[in-house]
Write a structure and sequence with these properties.
Helices cover about 60% and strands about 5% of the residues. It is elongated, with a radius of gyration of 31 Å. It has 30 helices and nine strands. The structure holds guanosine-5'-diphosphate (GDP) and magnesium ion.
């Protein structure tokens, strides 16, 4: 007799295995891979038992899942010993519902009963056994309770045979039985479900007839069938849990208590939105703008001091201009925003280390799946509010190729820290007291566009399948000061380094193009500069969103390709040519940018937010998407959306302005 020990990671498989076999075990690897394979005999019997890798599902997405399901499907297995963690019954039963579809008897060892008892979780075993049509034994592998009983049950063959479980709705059950009849293998029910899920490993069993049945079903549901099967499983599991599991409220852990609030079915999303709104309000609202003024004063002081110093040493006018109008103005305009970014980094880092971020991304998995993304996409999106480059790279953890590609293409839509200066500048000047609200509205617009694009891509471009995502949920913790400090410092530092390198060079180039004409004469009118000439070539592109042929705004937006901060830096330099450099707000009182209205300001923000990201992020997209062609597609897609949105915003905004 051969027994397969199957369960989630950390459910106690190895502990139980050692207990059952004693020293009677052999450790090796599964053929061709480095996953550990342990085989042994239950003490004093000839019952062979195999410790399968820890898995959450029998889907084809991971190596461990493939090993386990091939073993169960192809080898002669007489009994599955399914060990489940009594403290997280819902997650565990997801696998169980799949094991029960195989034509192999299943016994459930309900492990960790010592912890469950302590937490006051009570099980109605009779109902559980009836619902799953299988034998369930509560044990504690660590405390060795009831394990003898388990061995006796196995030895005596004294367990339910789980002949049938009714877990799906009517239509689905009917199709399953229909398919079961048309496929002729041992595990026909399992195979039928896998065929409905369009599992690539079982595609060889499909016939014209079965394809027809499944297509028909798909039309009926009008949704991804794999998702429907998963939903049905969860629905069934929730029903069993409500019937047979009772968790005493006052015995719950702090994490459970917090989850009841933060992951509450109705409250989770509003709370998440309030938190994100709060973060952006703090960073871009009153406190944030106060810090901008502080730094602004500092930059003003430095630039005055530098002007005096250079004048005193008799420096030529153009070199004074290079240092003050080029370097200090460009870099200063960026550094203005550093304190705001530090606030933003700090708050997001706190959310990460408390465990909230991981839990909310788990919660949102269902929502993300609906639009074709993974819950794991939330992590790149959140990191993306710092910088798209690491965010795009963090999309690597997404298993599903389509979801990964979509996440990479959509992550740059999140307002990264470099876009924050643009938002703060425009929102602060044009919307005054409501600037916090306007900043938040851009954030929500980004989310909306991401979800919408994902939905469209998923249904038009990739028509693919979705994976299920199960993550080990960390407990809530107090934020770790060391982690937060390190995290904030390293992000802030990389921002400073960029301001000192890329931005500095770009600022000098802009200053040069702006200060000279093609005959290399210095001291010309802005309109005659090389930069103005370049800008005029492209200003028609921006006309529909600005209502003005502005070479200056066009050139500034294009510079977002170098770095998004550069948009503001460039505007500061261009405007500074005619006015005082030290105050960010002076930009809009200058003749060059004086044409901006609330609607064109909002439209311009929208364009800069959604258009192709900086070269750094484009490079990261190239690397993670794999080909230059895909990178171009992404860049064109992003810029196209940006243009259309910005034009829409401007035209609608102008209409509203006229009506009011
Ligand atoms: P595996 O990943 O499924 O092989 O799980 P392990 O056997 O390695 O167990 C994971 C952790 O859970 C270990 O720290 C075990 O000591 C612990 N553990 C296993 N069974 C029990 C149990 O019944 N009660 C308690 N309290 N801890 C257990
Ligand atoms: Mg193990």
């Amino acid at each position: 007799m051969r027994i397969a020990l199957v369960g989630n990671q950390n459910s106690g498989k190895t502990t139980l295995f050692n207990l059952l076999t004693g020293t009677n075990q052999k450790v090796g690897n599964w053929p061709g891979v480095t996953v550990e394979r342990k085989v042994g005999f239950i003490r004093n019997t000839d019952f062979e038992i195999i410790d399968l890798p820890g898995i959450y599902s029998l889907s084809p997405y991971t190596l461990e899942e493939n090993i386990s399901r091939n073993f169960l499907f192809e080898e002669q297995v007489d009994l599955i010993l399914n060990i489940i963690d009594a403290t997280s019954i819902e997650r565990s039963l997801y696998l169980t519902t799949q094991l029960l579809e195989l034509k192999i008897p299943v016994i459930i060892a309900l492990n960790m009963m010592d912890i469950a008892d302590k937490r006051g979780i009570k099980f109605d075993l009779g109902t559980l056994e009836k619902r799953l049509d299988t034998t369930i034994l509560p044990i504690s592998a660590l405390k060795k309770t009831n394990v003898f009983n388990l061995i006796q049950t196995i030895k005596q063959g004294d367990y339910r045979r789980n002949l049938y479980q009714h877990i799906y709705d009517h239509d689905l059950e009917n199709v399953i039985s229909e398919l079961e009849e048309s496929v002729d293998t041992k595990h026909s029910r399992f195979l039928a479900v896998k065929m409905i899920e369009r599992d690539p490993l079982f595609i060889s069993h499909a016939t014209e007839e079965t394809d027809f049945i499944i297509d028909d079903l798909e039309k009926k549901y009008y949704r991804d069938l794999e998702q429907i099967v998963a939903d049905e499983r969860y629905r069934y599991i929730e029903m069993i849990r409500d019937e047979a599991v009772e968790a005493k409220r006052d015995m719950m852990t702090t994490t459970d208590h917090l989850d009841q609030i933060f992951l509450n079915r109705y409250l989770a999303i509003p709370i998440f939105m309030v938190i994100m709104f709060g973060i952006y309000y703090l960073a871009a609202g009153p406190i944030g703008s106060w810090t901008v003024d502080m730094v602004g004063t500092g930059v003003e002081f430095v630039s005055e001091w530098m002007t005096n110093f250079l004048t005193n040493v008799n420096a030529s006018p153009w070199s004074i201009s290079l240092v003050v109008d080029g370097m200090i103005a460009g870099v200063g305009a960026i550094l203005n925003f550093l304190p705001q970014l530090i606030i933003l980094f700090l708050l997001i880092s706190v959310l990460e280390t408390t465990g909230y971020m991981a839990r909310i991304s788990f919660f949102l998995d269902r929502v993300f799946q609906k639009v074709g993304l993974s819950g794991k996409s939330l992590i790149p999106f959140i990191i993306g509010s710092g910088c798209s480059v690491p965010a795009i790279m963090s999309a690597r953890t997404i298993n599903d190729e389509t979801e990964k590609k979509m996440t990479i293409m959509l992550t740059p839509f999140i307002p990264c820290s470099a876009k924050l200066p643009i938002i703060t500048l425009f929102a602060g000047y044009f919307f005054g007291d409501r600037s916090g609200f306007i900043s938040a509205s851009l954030y929500f617009l980004a989310i909306f566009i991401i979800l919408l694009s994902a939905y469209v891509m998923k249904n038009v471009l990739f028509k693919g399948k979705t994976s299920s995502f199960i993550l080990e949920l960390p407990e809530y913790k107090l934020p770790s000061l060391r982690y937060v400090i390190y995290d904030v410092f390293s992000k802030a530092w990389s921002f400073i380094v960029r301001a000192g390198s890329v931005i500095l060079v770009a600022s000098i180039i802009i200053w040069f193009l702006l200060s000279f004409d093609f005959r290399m004469t210095y001291g010309i009118a802005v309109d005659d500069s090389m930069l103005a000439w370049l800008g005029k070539l492209i200003s028609w592109i921006f006309y529909p969103m600005l209502g003005e042929m502005s070479w200056a705004a066009s050139i500034s937006a294009i510079q977002g390709l170098v770095a998004k901060e550069q948009v503001v830096g460039s505007m500061a330099i261009i405007a500074g040519y005619t006015s005082d450099v030290s105050e960010a707000r002076f930009i809009f009182t200058s003749g060059i940018f004086g044409f901006f209205t609330a609607s064109s300001a909002y439209a311009f923000m929208v364009f800069n937010l959604f258009s192709a990201p900086c070269f750094g992020a484009i490079g990261a997209m190239r690397q993670e998407l794999g080909t230059t062609k895909r990178m171009w597609k992404a860049v064109l897609f992003q810029t196209g959306i940006a243009w259309v949105l910005a034009v829409l915003v401007f035209q609608v905004g102008r209409l509203i302005e006229v009506i009011l």
